[in-house]
Amino acid sequence: MNEEISEITQLLSALAGGQADARDRLYTLLYPELKRLARSHLAGHAPMTLEPAALIHEVWLKSAGREGALHRGQFFAHASKVMRSVIVDHVRERYADKRGGGLNVTLSTTAMDQLAPPDVLKLDEVLQTLERADGRAHQVVQMRFFGGLELEEIAEVLEVSVPTVKRDWRKARAFLFDALQT
User: Fold this and answer.
1) Domain-by-domain residue ranges, the chain?
2) What is the 8-class DSSP label of residue 119?
3) Where in this chain does the record put each RNA polymerase sigma-70 ECF-like HTH domain (predicted)?
């Protein structure tokens, strides 16, 4: 696995450096993890017409070769953000189609079981508020909750210590819990 992570990092760097031939190999290596991530994002939603493959393709179009994604953790943090954005846009579109017809889409994860299942649009609004209030805590939520990254990986991406990530994660969870209860 570490060998694969190293190869992913090398391929991301090569692609960001303009080596287009790294794109196909990178896609092959990333696809299983992107599929797991897409399924995770879609899990717990009310019947959704959006498929994991659609999320993966959207991420690939918006992420591969983007500057700044020089290693696996950064790529998956960005991929998770893109997936959440696509899901929110999809829900907004469906909600508009139903003209407020009471569409209730939920999101669940073992990391935040204590929360009542939030509405995707409400969650997006709360996450935007968190981003304005504490950008790093927001990044931790993106990478941990949506990206499935471990605390150590997040610390590496953010270039902070693991205890700092733990504090940000606790702070962000408390913020989300309070905001989603109202």
Assistant:
1) 2-181
2) B
3) 6-181
